[in-house]
Amino acid sequence: MRPSTRQRTFLLAFTVLCTLLGLGCPLSCEVCKGPGHTCSGKLKKCEAGKDACVVLVGESSTKGRKSVNTLKACMKFSDCYSGFVSTTMGPNDYMVSNAQCCQSDGCNHDSVPPPQNNRTENGLMCPSCIVPFQDSCPGTRATRCVGQETHCIYFAGNVQAGIFNTKFATRGCATQSACYTKPGAEVPSASYLYFLRRADCLPAPQPPGRAE
Ligand SMILES: *[C@@H]1O[C@H](CO)[C@@H](O)[C@H](O)[C@H]1NC(C)=O
């Protein structure tokens, strides 16, 4: 049955009212996840506290296995970074992404340009490690940073892949934009959802022998 005009008027009035009064009106976002540079799904109401829609396209390599995935979802605006992020844990383990955050119903419908993936080494290095099931990792190895990666990160917390939820810890190179991520943040990648307890981000040390 189609909603009556009266019902629709009521809904509109309700939306306007809760916006004006600054009440927590639920936002609706397009929700989907899948391979490729875009995906499309239904509009869904966001759960309480998620006040932004995000569209994110990520290109990743895991032990040399490459994939491109797109995510559209609800998330907390204060955890959402609009722009390019690149992280490298090793020559065959990296992730680049481009995202757009917005705050109106269905605003994440359009796709975003795929991230640039500049794998040229830039002379900087960071401690690196990737461990599942643990919340710290030693970083006794080092990895070479590429492109615009000027910072070293140490992220740890929980990662959720479908119904599977486990601890993880990782260190490596990242663009300065990765420093936007703070402990306590709930951050999606194109494939997983990360709950960060630790999010250290520091400028990469200058390589020895290079004058300032
Ligand atoms: C790729 O990264 C290298 C190292 O930072 C830089 O010199 C080069 O200009 C970058 N290329 C592009 C197309 O951005």
UniProtKB/TrEMBL annotation:
Signal peptide residue numbers: 1-26
Alphabetized UniProt keyword annotations: Disulfide bond, Secreted, Signal
CDD domains on file: TFP_LU_ECD_PINLYP_rpt1, TFP_LU_ECD_PINLYP_rpt2
GO cellular component, one term: extracellular region
Subcellular location per the Swiss-Prot or TrEMBL entry: Secreted
GO molecular function terms listed in the Swiss-Prot or TrEMBL record: phospholipase inhibitor activity
Matches recorded under Pfam families: PLA2_inh (PF02988), UPAR_LY6 (PF00021)
Boundaries of every UPAR/Ly6 domain copy: 122-181
Occurrences of domain Phospholipase A2 inhibitor N-terminal (ranges): 28-108
Domain of life: Eukaryota
Family: Belongs to the CNF-like-inhibitor family.
Protein's recorded name: Phospholipase A2 inhibitor and Ly6/PLAUR domain-containing protein
Species name: Castor canadensis
Gene symbol of the encoding locus: Pinlyp
